[in-house]
Amino acid sequence: MRIFEEMESEVRGYVRAFPTVFDVAKGAFLYDEQGMRYIDFFAGAGTLNYGHNNPLISNALIEYLQHDGIVHGLDKATVAKKQFLQKFRDTILAPRNLEYKVQFTGPTGTNAVETALKLARMVKRRSNVIAFTNGYHGLTMGALAVTGNDFYRDESYGARNNADSVPFDGYFGPDVNTIDYLRKFLEDSSSGIDLPAAIIVETVQGEGGINVASSEWLQQLEALCREFDIMLIIDDIQMGNGRTGTFFSFEESGIKPDLVTVSKSIGGGLPMALLLMRPELDQWKPGEHTGTFRGNNLAFVAAAQALTYWENDDFADSIRYKGVIMEEELGKIVAKYADRLDIELRGRGMVWGLDFKRTGFPGEVARAAFHNQLVIELAGADDNVVKFLPALIIDEETLREGLAIIDRVIGEILLQKESVMRGDTAA
Hints:
Helices cover 38% and strands 16% of the residues. By secondary structure, the chain is α/β, with parallel strands linked by helices. The protein has 2 domains: 2-54 and 313-426, Alpha-Beta Complex (Aspartate Aminotransferase, domain 1); 56-310, Type I PLP-dependent aspartate aminotransferase-like (Major domain) (Aspartate Aminotransferase, domain 2, 3-Layer(aba) Sandwich). It has a 7-stranded mixed β-sheet with strand order 4-12-11-10-7-5-6, sandwiched between helices. It has a 4-stranded mixed β-sheet with strand order 1-2-3-15. The chain has a 4-stranded antiparallel β-sheet with strand order 13-14-17-16, with helices on one face. The longest helix has 31 residues, at 396-426. It starts with a helix and ends with a helix. The model has no long low-confidence stretch (mean pLDDT 95).
């Protein structure tokens, strides 16, 4: 690991959590340079829903490159882009009765968020944007202004302008409807919150700790936006592409956002981000919002192949089936250790989190899991949640194997701590 310590910036993060040199990856597995196999419950922070080196995607990329297909195209028309747009329209948008224009914003999710905020402000001629507690939308300046965690939002960055944060669903517990809270602010001209151009929200807050918004809450939020002429932006960067069981995470609620940001797994593992917008909102002048790498043709090829998973209901059914397994097995873990740990289980589909109420314990679990060949990350403002984000294509046996590792390491950590406490008492 010496070369990384000598040459790479201190800003590196995941390499500290997973201190080995990875070499090969396939499906739901990673292999380091020593050949050690790891189950991947991280999936590139949600970028690898279709797994590592998915053969459908890899074979299409190899064929495209051997054909000398366009790799860099800015926003020129290419065969790869044409095929992706046709596939996306016919397989995703049309069956869901969604009419969206597509804007290619740049390679990362934060590019899509920046574009959404800029477009909303331009169309509505208002600058304020409302976001939610524990929200995460990226780390460029505009996206950072609507990201909640103060670890990222140092005041010296000057990133807090023209954005307000209000309570997410359940923030004050189950008895407080935070839409009523937000309504009060919007109705009161002395609240200090200006009428926003847009409200941006994740249906499930991933980095924020796997906080799940109910369908009722999302429906009320949409109605509030319509009442006050506010654009509703759904950030589906991590929760889209099937993570919650449907292609878009908002489908279950029945809402139709004005703008949707899409990235991570849409590119089949390659950098790509989209902004979906209602057609009447497409008010850009040609070239008004641009970027050198907004047209990643290799990602178009990969994405078109990934979308074949959505040609029928089989893939969505498999996600829901494995999601039930995750909920049941993680629920058993919570029950098993209920008399020794305060744990809360939250999630939907194939994204779940174990919220431990003991400071530092989640970090111990993640480190022990890594030493048992399972890669898993933490979430929440204080890294208080162990976050389960396996590839959607993972097979049931491997999924259960990974969940069993978590069960085992929790037990081992508790046994070790209790042994130490008994030793201290004896001494």
